[in-house]
Design brief:
301 residues, mainly beta, 2 domains, eight-stranded antiparallel sheet, five-stranded antiparallel sheet, 4 helices
Length: 301
């Protein structure tokens, strides 16, 4: 019995010796300084920060927009754009660029600058608009990317009472089969499109009732160009709606008005920007003149 007790005590002493550090080990245990604040070492480093990409317009590219004040702010319709020497659609524009940007805005008489938001697609109207936080309300606001080179020449508005150009409109309508045309509201501009020293005349003529709903024979909304061709002066329609129904019909007619003359594609020849208005709707079109040929480059309603 005593022998068993002795073995048991020896085992306890051996366990105590294993659990307690030796005096040599105790001298190597560091003592914490209470004045030092502990710092937690992260188990993983934070990811590196990637700088935001620099947004730029593609070279040789600019959106083409037409502006108007709606309600509180000025909005622009995205008509399309220019890419190199080509006119491109609004969808092709947003493939190239779809971010906020600064734009140069041109009217017939001045240049402005606005900051535009990213293009916003309207599903019901199937078009893109560019909003701003400004309230500019001027006729013929054509916007391009800031710094995009454009060319304008002086456009002189002539008297709407000009008898000669009133007769030009009536004669053209007779050729179109209107037997007894009546004079309408005229707006007349003189401008040198090609820069060759020979002016072109543009006549906006409108004969519609005030309802903006119905039309009948004798009603029209047209833009005519009077141009020298060789030794003669010719009358060329830029855009023309001539109505022929004997009874009044609900057509919601469009009213066309020349609002700007500006070279947008950098070919040295001014394009014609025509505003379009109708009942609860509007838009614009850009036309290029090649001699006596009129080419519609962009249009959105």
């Amino acid at each position: 019995m005593n022998k068993i007790r002795t073995i048991f005590l020896v085992c306890i002493l051996m366990l105590v010796a294993c659990a307690s550090p030796s005096s040599a080990e105790q001298t190597n245990v560091p003592t914490l300084d209470p004045t030092v604040t502990a710092t937690r070492i992260p188990t993983s480093l934070p990811p590196s920060i990637t700088p935001a990409p620099v947004i730029t317009m593609p070279p040789g590219f600019s959106p083409i927009m037409y502006g108007k004040k709606y309600d509180a702010n000025t909005f622009f319709l995205l008509l399309g754009g220019v890419l190199g020497s080509d006119w491109i659609t609004p969808d092709a524009v947003t493939d190239q660029f779809a971010a906020e940007w600064d734009y140069d805005v041109y009217t017939l008489s001045e240049r402005l600058q606005v900051h535009g938001f990213a293009p916003d697609f309207s599903l019901p109207n199937q078009l893109y608009t560019i909003g701003t936080d400004v309230t500019v309300d001027k006729a013929g606001m054509v916007a391009v990317a800031k710094g995009w080179p454009v060319l304008q020449r002086d456009a002189e508005e002539l008297s709407s009472e000009n008898v000669f150009y009133q007769q030009v409109v009536l004669d053209w309508l007779k050729v179109e089969g209107v037997s007894a045309p009546e004079s309408g509201l005229l707006t007349i501009f003189r401008v040198d499109l090609e820069g060759d020293g020979v002016d072109e005349i543009f006549i906006n003529a409108v004969h519609l009732d005030e309802s903006q709903h119905t039309t009948k024979t004798g009603d029209y909304s047209i833009v005519l160009m009077r141009k020298v061709a060789g030794n003669d002066a010719v009358t060329v329609p830029v855009v023309a709606d001539v109505y022929r129904s004997q009874e009044a019909q609900v057509t919601f007619p469009k009213t066309y008005s020349t609002t700007n003359f500006i070279d947008l594609n950098q070919d040295g020849v001014l394009e014609i920007v025509v505003g379009i208005e109708k009942w609860e709707g509007d838009g614009a079109a850009v036309y290029q003149i090649n001699g006596q040929e009129v080419v519609e480059c962009l249009r959105l309603e």
